[in-house]
C-alpha cells in the first residue's frame, strides 16, 4: 500500500496548475500556425492602413511625434486587451456549458484555484506572444523609438491579467453565450475606441475623460506609449501598475467565486 501510494504521489505535478496549462498547450500545438500567421499579418495590415493611410492626413503628428509612432503602442496594448478578452469569453463559457472540460478537471481531482490559474496562464501566454509579435513587426517599420520598448512584454502581461481575470468571472457566471456578445458590443468595442488608442483622450469632452481613465486599457496604452517612445507616461508608473494590479486581484477573487459556484457542489 505504501509503495503504491508513493508511486501514485510521484506522478502528481508539484504545481497542479502547470498540468492544466500543459493541457491547453497540447491543444495549441495543433493550431499555433494559424495563430502565428494572424499575429504577424494583422500588425502589417493595421500599420499600413492606420499608420500610413490615416497618418498621411495627420500632418502635425500627435504629441510632437509622427502619428505612426504615436499609434503603434496603443495598438499593441489594444491587441493584448482583445486577445485577453477573446481567450476568456467563449473558451471559458464552453468549458462549463458545452465540452465541460472544467468538470472533468475538477474530478481529476484538481482544485478550483488550479483550474483557474492554469487556464489564465495559457491566456497570458497568448497575450504576451501576440503583443511581442506586434512589437516585432512595428519595429521593422521603424515605429519603436526607445530601448525601453522591452517593457511592453510585462505591461501586456499585467494588462492581460487585469482584463482576463474579471472576464473569466463574467463568462463563468452568465447563463448563455448571448451575454458574451453583449460584452463585446457594450464594453470591448467602446473601450477600444475611446481609451486613447487612436486619438488622445484629451480631445474628448471633459465629462467623458474620467470614463476612459477608469478603463484598464487606457493605463496599458499609456504605459506602452511611454515605453516605445521613451517618454514619461501621463500618469505615474506606480499608479498605473497598482491600478492594473487591483483589477487583476479583484478579477481573480471574482473568478474563483464564480468557478466554485459552478464546480463545487
What's a concise summary of this model?
It contains 12 helices and no strands.
What are its keywords?
mainly alpha; 265 residues; 72% helix; single chain; 12 helices
Write the layout of secondary structure elements.
Elements: H1 2-10, H2 16-28, H3 32-53, H4 67-86, H5 90-97, H6 101-106, H7 112-140, H8 152-173, H9 178-193, H10 209-214, H11 216-229, H12 237-263
Helix pairs in contact: 2-7, 3-4, 3-7, 4-7, 4-8, 4-11, 7-8, 8-11, 8-12, 11-12
Summarize the structure in words:
With 265 residues, the protein is an all-alpha fold. Helices cover 72% and strands 0% of the residues. The protein has twelve helices and no strands. The longest helix has 29 residues, at 112-140. The model is unreliable at 1-10 (pLDDT under 50).
State the order of secondary-structure elements, H for helix, E for strand: HHHHHHHHHHHH
> Outline, from the CA principal axes?
globular
| Biggest sheet architecture | none
Count of individual beta strands? 0
Helix content: over 70%
List low-confidence stretches: 1-10
Task: Provide the residue-averaged pLDDT.
Answer: 90
Radius of gyration: 20 Å
Approximately how much beta-strand content do the residues carry? Answer: under 5%
The secondary-structure class comes to mainly alpha
Oligomer: single chain
What is the number of helical segments per DSSP (H or I, 4+ residues)?
Answer: 12
From the N-terminal CA to the C-terminal CA, the straight-line distance is: 30 Å
Amino acid at each position: 500500500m505504501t509503495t503504491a501510494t508513493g508511486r501514485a504521489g510521484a506522478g502528481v505535478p508539484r504545481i497542479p496548475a502547470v498540468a492544466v496549462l500543459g493541457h491547453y498547450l497540447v491543444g495549441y500545438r495543433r493550431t499555433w500556425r494559424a495563430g502565428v500567421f494572424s499575429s504577424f499579418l494583422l500588425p502589417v495590415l493595421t500599420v499600413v492602413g492606420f499608420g500610413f493611410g490615416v497618418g498621411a492626413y495627420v500632418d502635425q503628428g500627435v504629441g510632437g511625434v509622427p502619428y505612426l509612432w504615436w499609434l503603434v503602442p496603443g495598438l499593441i496594448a489594444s491587441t493584448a486587451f482583445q486577445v485577453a478578452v477573446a481567450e476568456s469569453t467563449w473558451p471559458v463559457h464552453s468549458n462549463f456549458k458545452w465540452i465541460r472540460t472544467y468538470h472533468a478537471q475538477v474530478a481529476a481531482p484538481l482544485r478550483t484555484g488550479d483550474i483557474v490559474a492554469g487556464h489564465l496562464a495559457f491566456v497570458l501566454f497568448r497575450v504576451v506572444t501576440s503583443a511581442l509579435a506586434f512589437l516585432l513587426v512595428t519595429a521593422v517599420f521603424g515605429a519603436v523609438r526607445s530601448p525601453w520598448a522591452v517593457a511592453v512584454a510585462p505591461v501586456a502581461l499585467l494588462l492581460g491579467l487585469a482584463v482576463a481575470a474579471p472576464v473569466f468571472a463574467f463568462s463563468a457566471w452568465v447563463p448563455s453565450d448571448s451575454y458574451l456578445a453583449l460584452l463585446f458590443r457594450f464594453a470591448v468595442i467602446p473601450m477600444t475606441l475611446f481609451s486613447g488608442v487612436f486619438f488622445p483622450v484629451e480631445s474628448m469632452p471633459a465629462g467623458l475623460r474620467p470614463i476612459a481613465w477608469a478603463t484598464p486599457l487606457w493605463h496599458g496604452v499609456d504605459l506602452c506609449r511611454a515605453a516605445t517612445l521613451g517618454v514619461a507616461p501621463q500618469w505615474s508608473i506606480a499608479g498605473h501598475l497598482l491600478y492594473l494590479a487591483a483589477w487583476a486581484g479583484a478579477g481573480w477573487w471574482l473568478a474563483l467565486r464564480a468557478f466554485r459556484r459552478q464546480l463545487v457542489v
